[in-house]
From TrEMBL:
UniProt GO MF annotations: DNA binding; transposase activity
Protein known as: Transposase
InterPro entries: Homeodomain-like_sf, Transposase_8, WH-like_DNA-bd_sf
Top-rank taxon, per record: Bacteria
Species whose genome carries this gene: Rhodococcus rhodochrous J45
GO biological process: DNA transposition
């Protein structure tokens, strides 16, 4: 059995969606991950990792999909 998750899956999905949408808008792209992470109480590096994986899964960024 693995370690318990630090963040609930619903929070992870919501934060990722918000960050991906904010990064699409040139006006809010700068600092979007840090700003959203602070608002939701998530470590910015965790959110950055989730966004990176979402971009890979969506075909926007090269890499291995989940």
């Amino acid at each position: 059995m693995g370690a318990p998750r630090k963040y609930p899956e619903e929070l992870k999905e919501r934060a990722t969606r918000l960050a991906v949408e904010a990064r699409r808008d040139p006006g809010s792209k700068t600092g979007a991950i840090k700003r959203i992470a602070e608002q939701l109480g998530i470590h910015p590096e965790a959110l950055r990792t989730w966004v990176r994986q979402a971009e890979i899964d969506g075909g926007v960024r090269p890499g291995t999909t989940t």
